[in-house]
Specification:
- One of its GO terms (biological process) is C4-dicarboxylate transport.
- Helix 1 runs antiparallel to helix 2 and helix 2 runs parallel beside helix 6.
- It contains eight helices and no strands.
- By secondary structure, the chain is mainly alpha-helical.
- The chain folds into two domains: 66 residues; 109 residues, no CATH class.
- The two termini are 32 Å apart.
């Protein structure tokens, strides 16, 4: 199961690379066409915006899995093991609630988004904003798995240290700040 999950997240990382590359190429080509030839591709403006939305929301799931989101590590580092585990439990419960609300909001907006078409590409806007289903469900599933492992005592010391920011080397801290 872990292998399948790892492969899925590798696929997501590859998808992020493709979307970001496509966005950069479309914007670059459009800039060259506008300034060099006084023309442009309307579709590239629209698709690059949509790619940006998808990169942001797919990237949020990938970053959450890798513990790369912002945390209040200074406060958590003051606690002992039990305090850190309690903070981890509370934060995962809050994350599940917020991500579930996000999923539900996307569900409530579905009829509106599905009935609207993009101005240039004419694709249904649910293809753009429906990414909220993936993001909400993905974060809920990851947080639920973490919460179950916390409540059953299967959390590792490395995970607790990562939650408190104690496992960060200078290289990892520099990588996170970029």
């Amino acid at each position: 199961m872990q292998r399948a999950t790892d492969l899925f997240f590798r696929f997501l990382e590859l998808l992020l690379i493709l979307l970001l590359s496509g966005m950069a190429i479309m914007v670059f080509v459009n800039v060259v066409l506008r300034y060099g030839f006084n023309s442009g591709l309307n579709i590239s403006d629209e698709l690059s915006r949509y790619f940006f939305v998808w990169v942001t929301f797919i990237g949020a799931v990938v970053a959450f899995r890798e513990h790369a989101h912002v945390g209040v590590e200074t406060l958590v580092a003051l606690f002992g093991r039990k305090g850190r585990i309690l903070c981890m439990i509370l934060s995962n419960i809050i994350i599940i609630g917020v991500a579930a609300i996000f999923f539900w909001g996307t569900w409530k907006q579905y009829p509106i988004n599905a009935s609207m078409d993009a101005p240039v590409t004419k694709i249904s806007m649910i293809w753009v904003y429906g990414i909220g289903f993936f993001t909400g469900a993905g974060i809920v599933l990851i947080a639920l798995e973490r919460l179950i492992r916390l409540l059953t005592g299967r959390v590792t010391e490395d995970e607790i240290a990562a939650f408190a920011g104690e496992n960060l080397t200078a290289e990892k801290m520099a990588e996170r700040s970029q």
